[in-house]
Amino acid sequence: MRLVVGPVTAVERLLAAAPIDHVLTLVSPEAEISSIAVPRTVLRFNDISEPRPGLVAPDAAILATLLDLPRELAADATLLIHCHAGVSRSTAAAYVLACAQGSPGEEGAWAWRLRQASPEATPNALMIALADQALARGGAMVRAIAGIGRGVDCLEGSVFGWTLD
Hints:
Blueprint: E1 2-7, H1 11-17, E2 22-27, E3 40-44, H2 60-72, E4 78-83, H3 89-101, H4 107-117, H5 125-134, H6 140-148, E5 160-163
Parallel strand pairs: 1-4, 2-3, 2-4
Antiparallel strand pairs: 1-5
């Protein structure tokens, strides 16, 4: 599977530039989304790292939907993942999918690849913690993301692509 990751402002350009088989949209519950002519999965939650009153936190059900997504796609599919800025939710989703496709022990290597691909990436910590539990990684994913530190400040993250083998 190939992942293309970026901000919402890049979606139309990315859809026009190359074949995309599916779009994963990670947005706040109240966010409006435009229609597209590609199959799409929409996960609605706020970009928060711990539950807060009045906001929707990522939870185990959201992570289960994310982790099940590759089973619905062909092995050679291209999945476009985007959130609002392409910094937190989308980079967390890409990292989670990479770790899920990989073997235990590769968490640090995937975190380093994420940092190389997107200097701005600051993956949503709660998504990472939930995925770490779901994948039974014993804290390895959380430690790996903490190890790369916060990304550089920006308004939007870089568009990047990964091939998961």
